[in-house]
Amino acid sequence: MAVQGTNLDGTERLGSFFQAHQREFNRLQDPDRSVRRAALETFKKLLAPTGAGTVAPDGPYLEALCASGLLPPFLQLLSDPVEKCRELALGIMQAVTSKLPQVGTVMDQVMPPVRARIGVSPVAETSEEVRLQLVALLADSLLPRCTQQPSQAAAQDVAAVLSQVLQDPFHEIKKAACRGIVAGARQCPGALAPHAEGLMKALLQNVAHPHSRVRTAVLQALDGVVATGGLPAGSLTDVLPPGIKPLAFDKAAAVRQLLFSSIAHWLGAPSGSLPLPPPPAFDPQPYVLDLLPLLLVGVTDPSSDIASRTLELAEQKVVATHLRELLRPLQKELREWTVALRQGAARVLHTVLVLGGENVTGHVDVIVPMLCAAVGDEDADVAKRIVSCGHVVGAAVRPAMWVPIMGDELTAPRASAAQKANRLVVLAALLHATEEGGLAAEHVAQIAQIVAGEELRCAEHAAVRTQLLAVVTNLVRAAGPACGPVTLPLLQTLLQLQATPNDVPLQHSAAEVTSALARATGHSSVSSLFSEHLSGLLATATADHAQWVSVSPGWQLFQALLHAAGAAAGPGLEQALPVLAGVVQQEREAALRISALQLVDELLEVPALAATWRRRAARLLAEMLVPCGVWRAGKVAAAVRHAAMVATGTLLRNDLCTQEDLLGVLSGSSLLAVVRSCLEEDYYVDTRRAACHVAEHLVRVAGPALSGEQRRALYKDVLKRLDDSNDEIRIEITGAARQLFASLPPHEDGAEVRELVDGMLVHMDDPDARVQAAVCSALEVAARVRGVQVEEAVRKVMQKHRSQVYCARVLAAAEATH
């Protein structure tokens, strides 16, 4: 039943209460657990009634009861061996203290036994539920009503209990402890201030708790601890910022938002939902450089709401004022082992640069090397963020400030290929953000000379080449017509990139940038651009041709130039042919000789160069192709012969050598002997095939002007190749036979022609129908020229052939001449 006696004065009511219930107080000490429990149930009905129609004691009355000794019997039961008794005793105390106007004196009574149960290690209270009740008594009943400063002893007990229970494994107890810290910081900050550092350390141990609500509660409690003003300076600079830093990347958006709001609150900004303003004694200025970088992480938060809110809290003026000091720790953090820390540092750096604006100009000597060192981070997110930082700097800072620094970075000795690539990435980013026309001529020239330097232009590292192209691309865009005076070095670089082996995308991209350079410098086409600079490019490319090998950058540049120049390469062939002639000499590297002959073959296929080649065909044959076709032992030499035969066949097939020039070469060199030797090639079938092609077009171009001796030699070679082990060669050689028959002079000895026709008739009965058809085609030409001789020869063997179809075709051609 509820406490009655409303007609008595206060003293009588108190005396009546203790007198009326003395037996129940005695029963609280009874050895029998059931008796103690029954007594507690009685007091629960008296002091905390819950039934309908009951009236609970008011606050002043309960305060008077507590002052008269109500609580000690219940406090003794906190160590009762029966869990239910401890729960009932705690429930009564919670009900009583929750109605007290103030709890200053009560805390002196309550805190020692509470500390004895849960404020020591190991914790005496074994029940999880009872421990939660004990913390709730402190957090929800006592501290929110602590309107007067508690005694020093009580404050120590409170701090000890809160610090200890923050280590409890039960998450609800941790949350209750955080509520207690917030309540204590609000109601009696002076009592907690001496213990702020210990509370902070206990809280920081829970920032990685798996429950987001626990992490949120920890942040709220930390806010309260900071607001007490009791943290020493070293804790605010060395302990708190790194301790809460992981929360800046928390997976829960609510945690991140609270963190950034809390930091802004500590720095003196209005914190909206947080109830605690910074106390007057707390001066945030000394800690700006330690806390501001953490706040700036929020500006690039994945949540747009958090990012925009944090941006409002971050003051641009503060960032600009402390820019140099903010950059120093970021240099270290960008080299951290942990990816998350490097990501955070990159985000902060980006935000600092954006907020710094034009003030960044005075710090590029620090920023640019930072970017060069960090842009090669193995984490893609970090690298992308650093590139974005380069864009910010390029947009905010005049090129006059960063071009010399980048020049020093890119020309630094002993830099590795990866470091060069990283520095080129930064230079490309700076140029990307530079407005068109924003580069002075001297800066364009400086960058052009850097990228055209041999160390960068001729680098074998794929990343260096890729980033080099990015730099030239952005330079051409930003400089535009200002590229005119430095077109030559830029062309050298682009051609070197086009010469990159086995990287077709890079080659195509470099060709596209070359077209852009032509447009930027006022040329109507790429050919026009090359025409203007061909001589200078050839001089640069061939400067070291005596030392070339197949992988020499100069050789690769030379090839790319002649390929890319197209029709414009014509005037430069006079300058290029002596170089090519020297390259294909026997003493040079075989791979270089082969690639040179392949280059010649490709250029012989360019229609726009036909007139130029016709003027130099005799020289090309005599000085380059014939010497390379001479037989020498070994497969390497055989490969050179094959390349020489292919180029010779292309020259003759495209009619780039006149009859007069060809006859001059035939009489003044061993051309025919070389071709005949290649027809006998043992190493490669393809060499014999190419030689067949050469023989066909040699006879076609020379025509009846071939001497009888030369023709007779070729007759024998045709018959030999018709007996070749490879049917493809047998088919190919019939082309030479057709040309021999077509160009028969009237005075040619009939016996020798008859011998060739008889030999070919044998193969017109070959089992391979393709061979039959090819031989028939050649004999039809012979029949049109020497009809009587051919008809006579065919009729002699016609009956022996397994099929007379081809014989009939040849006879028809012969009869048509009668």
Describe the protein's topology.
Blueprint: H1 10-20, H2 22-27, H3 33-47, H4 59-67, H5 71-76, H6 83-97, H7 104-118, H8 128-142, H9 152-165, H10 171-187, H11 189-192, H12 196-204, H13 212-227, H14 233-244, H15 253-266, H16 288-297, H17 304-313, H18 316-321, H19 323-333, H20 339-356, H21 364-374, H22 380-396, H23 399-410, H24 417-433, H25 441-452, H26 454-457, H27 462-479, H28 487-498, H29 504-520, H30 526-541, H31 553-565, H32 573-583, H33 590-604, H34 610-629, H35 635-653, H36 659-668, H37 671-679, H38 685-702, H39 708-722, H40 727-742, H41 750-763, H42 769-785, H43 787-797, H44 805-815
Helix pairs in contact: 3-6, 6-8, 7-8, 7-9, 8-10, 9-12, 10-13, 12-13, 12-14, 13-15, 15-16, 16-20, 19-20, 20-22, 21-22, 21-23, 21-24, 22-24, 23-24, 23-25, 24-27, 25-27, 25-28, 27-28, 27-29, 28-29, 28-30, 28-31, 30-31, 32-34, 33-35, 34-35, 34-36, 34-37, 35-38, 37-38, 38-40, 39-40, 39-41, 40-42, ...
